[in-house]
């Protein structure tokens, strides 16, 4: 499965440069204790998405990829990569791009046979860990296809993982966390060591979509001189969070009794949809569903098709009942235009 980024994916990576200039031990600060137990709490996201992420069932897998090794004579530590990750390298004073690259390489190993130290831990849970460098993988609980190869706007492929709420897919980059840390994220700087760490991830959010099926049943077709094509027109409006996300008309044309349907794809999940039969011709009467005045409502479900159905019957009259349907569309740079829809395409 492959998805395209509309923008850069973001993930909080608290992975720190440890080989640069470090303060010498002078007694002013407590020296790093790599034998001390740390705690880590990983939150799946903050801000407006925090509440919905709770519905996504995000869990955390943690892989330890390196032990923390104190640097003699300095108040800092370096890494000793563990079995399976010994081929990883990290230069002096790495920048964020180098940390991201390291996380990608570590994920390539961890997600293909690596052994996590913790798996399926609900996001937001405080867990105890030894000092060292950890790979953080966030995913939706119960998802089997959560590992995704994503391609950014520059054509670069990266390993990502996903979780899903009712309305959105959340995509996470693998990230690295170094325990313990310091305020400001510089373990080579001044200040006390922090053995209790909180990390907040920043996933990309994308709408999940579903489909709408409009079913038209025609019980009887006009006889004699009134045998014009029977044309039925439906107005479709979809609203999500107070915003109109879809608006269009659908036309179904009959030359005999029977059933036809039309499927609209790509409507955001959770959208409230109103379908109104706005034209039935002069010789056909809506008979089902009763009491609707030609309007039905439904809610779009992610990855499935919601359906509404209308049934009409022939009403004898001396009037014909055809229609000409013009389809209007707006094109960037060209403005509005229209085309007549032939009967055999309605």
Give your account of this protein's structure.
The structure is a single chain. The protein is mainly β and about 350 residues long. It is built from two helices and 23 strands. Residues about 1-30, about 320-325 and about 340-345 have low confidence and may be disordered.
User: How many beta-strand elements?
Assistant: 23
As a percent range, the share of helical residues equals under 10%
What fraction of residues sit in β-strands?
A: over 45%
Low-confidence blocks of residues: 1-28, 320-324, 342-346
Order of helices and strands: EEHEEHEEEEEEEEEEEEEEEEEEE
Backbone structural class = mainly beta
* Strand order, largest beta sheet: 1-8-9-10-13
Which oligomeric form is depicted? single chain
| Terminus-to-terminus distance | 34 Å
* Annotation field: number of helices: 2
For the residues shown, what is the average pLDDT? Answer: 84
**Main beta sheet: strand number and arrangement?**
5 strands, mixed
Shape: rod-shaped
- The rounded Rg comes to 30 Å
Write the layout of secondary structure elements.
Layout: E1 2-4, E2 38-43, H1 50-55, E3 58-70, E4 77-81, H2 96-110, E5 118-122, E6 126-129, E7 132-140, E8 147-151, E9 157-164, E10 168-172, E11 175-179, E12 196-200, E13 204-207, E14 209-218, E15 230-240, E16 243-254, E17 258-268, E18 272-279, E19 284-288, E20 295-299, E21 305-314, E22 326-331, E23 335-340
Parallel strand pairs: 1-8, 2-12, 14-21
Antiparallel strand pairs: 2-6, 3-4, 3-5, 3-7, 7-11, 8-9, 9-10, 10-13, 14-17, 15-16, 15-18, 18-20, 19-21, 22-23
């Amino acid at each position: 499965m492959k998805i395209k980024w509309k923008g850069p994916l973001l993930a909080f990576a608290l992975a720190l440069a440890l080989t640069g200039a470090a303060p010498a031990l002078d007694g002013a600060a407590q020296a790093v204790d790599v034998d001390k137990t740390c705690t880590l709490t990983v939150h799946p996201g903050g801000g407006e998405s925090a509440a919905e992420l709770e519905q996504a069932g995000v869990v955390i897998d943690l892989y330890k990829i390196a032990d923390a090794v104190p640097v003699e004579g300095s108040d800092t530590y370096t890494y000793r990569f563990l079995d399976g990750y010994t081929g990883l390298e990290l230069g002096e004073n790495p920048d964020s791009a180098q940390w991201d690259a390291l996380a990608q390489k570590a994920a390539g190993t961890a997600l293909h046979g690596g052994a996590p130290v913790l798996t399926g831990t609900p996001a937001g849970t405080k867990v105890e860990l030894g000092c060292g460098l950890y790979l953080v993988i966030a995913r939706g609980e119960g998802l089997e296809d959560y590992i995704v190869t994503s391609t950014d706007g520059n054509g670069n492929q990266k390993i990502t993982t996903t979780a899903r709420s009712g309305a959105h897919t959340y995509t996470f980059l693998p990230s690295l966390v170094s325990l313990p840390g310091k305020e400001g994220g510089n373990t080579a700087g001044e200040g006390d060591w922090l053995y209790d760490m909180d990390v907040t991830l920043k996933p990309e959010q994308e709408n999940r979509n579903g489909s709408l099926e409009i079913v038209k049943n025609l019980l009887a077709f006009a006889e004699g001189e009134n045998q014009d094509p029977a044309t039925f027109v439906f107005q479709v409006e979809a609203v999500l969070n107070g915003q109109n996300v879809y608006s269009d008309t659908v036309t179904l044309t009959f030359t005999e009794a029977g059933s036809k349907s039309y499927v609209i794809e790509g409507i955001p999940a959770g959208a409230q949809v109103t379908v109104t039969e706005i034209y039935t011709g002069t010789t056909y009467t809506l008979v089902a569903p009763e009491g609707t005045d030609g309007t039905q409502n439904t809610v779009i479900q992610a990855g499935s098709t919601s359906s509404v159905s209308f049934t009409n019957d022939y009403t004898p009259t001396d009037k014909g009942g055809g229609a000409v349907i013009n389809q209007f569309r707006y094109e960037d740079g060209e403005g509005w235009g229209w085309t007549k829809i032939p009967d055999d395409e309605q």
